[in-house]
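ENTRY TYPE: paired fold submission
RECORD: A
CONTENT: sequence, then structure tokens
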Amino acid sequence: MPVNDSILIIGPPDSGKTTFIVQFFTRVKKRKSSITLFKMPENIKAITDAEKRLASGEEPKTTPASENVELVLPVNVDGRIIDLICPDYGGEQVNTLTQLMEVDNNWEKLVDSSDRWMLFIRPAKIIPGYDLSISCYEEIEKIKSRAFKSPGLSDQSKFIELLQILLHTKHKGVKRPVSVPRLFIVLTCWDELKTEKKPIQVLQEKLPMLLHFVETIWAKEALEVFGLSAQEFPLNTQEAKDKYQNELPENFGYMIDQEGVKDKDITNLVNMALQ
């Protein structure tokens, strides 16, 4: 069965979706990428505020949970016209999918019309599980206190439930390895990790149960893991803000390929998803 050329970006709250979309769009628009715009998108309301904030050296705001604005970027990738589907939804909607086990009509349409999924995960915010190799209970509590609290399912279970729901919505069985949709796990805010490890090694360390699940369900050629720092560094000091304003946001950011190689052109994430 032929695979369509649309890419759906999925991610929970504060996973870096909006920052990547803004940086991608700005680079493509200003011809700082091998990817070009096929035509201007019909509606860029979804990223206008975030684009202005980054240009001013400010972090983009979290999208309200009730927000549902679909941004479709028609781009030319080596003569191939594709739609990058970037629904600017409140990331809390992803949590709601796993909590209520309900998929509304909008999500059904998004999932059904895409054969490539990018799942954004911010590993630095993952709550660590209990490790029996840590003998001191106080040490475990200290680790947990540094993590962001998340009610209900564990992070591992939440992502597994999410993928199961999306596969069910797309009417995909798991008796055979899934080749469509292809799945690209993108570990975001890579700069927070301060690591030289490959993305798949970080996923194994942070979410081993999720990695085992996707490697079991997806065909080997249909699963890839990347690292991404769309912003490159936090904008929490005046020096950082000034640097962003003076040197322009589109000159920052990088991705990490499967072999751990750093690439300053974050738009290559889309190139790799289309290979």
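RECORD: B
CONTENT: sequence, then structure tokens
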Amino acid sequence: MKVVVIPPYRAQNYTPTEGHYMVRELITDMKEKGQLNGVEIDIDDGYPVEDRTGYRDEEVLAIISAGIIERVKLYCEGDRYDAIVTSGGMEPGFSAARMISKIPVTGAINSAIHIASLIGDRFSTINLHDPAALIVRRLVHTYGLSHKMATAIAIGQPSNSMMAIIRKYKRGERGKAPEGKKLIDEIVARCISTIEEDRVDSLIFACPHPQCLQDEIRERLDQEGYGEIQLIGAFRAALQMARAMVNMKLKQAPRAYPSDTLKAKPRFR
């Protein structure tokens, strides 16, 4: 099975973005744990985006969605790939990508919330910023699972400072460094708060930054007596969902993601 992963975008000068760096790390981690046996993965080089805001909000989402769609058009033709995975924590271009693609397309948020719904009754999402948290809440509503969502939490940490820690220290060593421990302490505190106050059974790490810290967070939650709470990394979920769809010979239903060329048109919606 061969999959192509499309990170949200690449900077104007084609230097690797945070998303590319973290996607590579997460894939390496999954391979080392034996979670990707039989799966060959290519990572898209991305597309130039002029992001003048520096934020992660609706404006940037609209900008990068167009780039995602163009890359999906490129990869869904022929027989080079079996599936496409989009890794953005705000699900850029997901519905349009599913409409366009002739092969399975999975998105991080869509996959994670469906897995959370499968294994439990109440989940919260851990997001980087408030705009992203609201976007994810709207997505959950669109996917028909808002009755299982408790809260969409914003960590409120600048992405550049979190990325500095991820780049500076290796996996497994970040929680030992003072700044890494402080960051993990803050994330764990937010996790425990929603576990206790919102009575959730599962937590979804929607953005890639906390996903890169997931093992350290897991260890801390276990130490605090929350070993029964399930942790779901959104990008990991998307890769596994792609594998399941390919193995089951399924793709997104055209009636659910219709274009004007849909042949078996329903009589009403």
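NOTES ON RECORD B: Strands lie at 2-6, 10-11, 40-43, 48-49, 83-86, 105-107, 123-127, 149-154, 202-205, 230-233. The chain is about 45% helix and 15% strand.
STATUS: closed
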